[in-house]
Structures are given as C-alpha cells and as structure tokens.
Fold this sequence. Notes:
Helix content is 37%, strand content 29%. It is an alpha+beta fold. The chain has one domain: Alpha-Beta Plaits, CATH 3.30.70. It has a four-stranded antiparallel sheet with strand order 2-3-1-4. The longest helix has 17 residues, at 22-38. This is Antibiotic biosynthesis monooxygenase. Keywords: Monooxygenase, Oxidoreductase. Residues 13-83 form the ABM domain.
Amino acid sequence: MPIDITTDFHGQTVISTFEMTPGTCTDVLEALTTAYDEVIRKQPGFLGGAIHVNDAQTRISTYSRWVKREDFQAMLRTQEMRERNRGIAAMCSRFEPVMYEVAAVF
C-alpha cells in the first residue's frame, strides 16, 4: 500500500539499513521480503513499508510506519522476528534500525 509522507504524522517511522556484499544481497532481500509478507505486515500497528536496494547491491534500506513506537518494539520482541533477525544479521556486515520523525516534506 502506498505511504503518504506528511509532517503531521503522529506515529512512528523506522528506517533500517543493512550492509552486505553483492553476493548476499539477494538472500537478504528474500529474507526481508518474506519477513514483511509473513510476519511484519500482520503485526498490530503496522501501517505500511517499503524495501530499497542500491545499485551496487551492497545496501538495503527498509522504511516502515507504525501507529506507535511500542507497536514496532513489540514486533521486534516476537519469537518469530527475533529468529528471523538473527538470520538476517548473520548475512550482513551491519544492520541498524533507527526511529525517525518527519521533519519536512518536499
């Protein structure tokens, strides 16, 4: 579902970055796509998300929006996502989810 980015959004925006080699990019992308399809999008408070891959296939960024911060944190604490995140992290040299607020839209 499309995400409208606005400064009056009062929920939680999370942008996660994953760094990997081009050889593991497809595996990480598959793991993330499956996680979103099977688990993340079904969690309470999930509003929408997107996955982006850079041209060199060395970085993936995900963008997700949640009703509130606690919804995102609860999703991370589920046994299913803890196991999936361990597998995803093992394929990456770096994995960092960061919570943001929209400051401006152009």
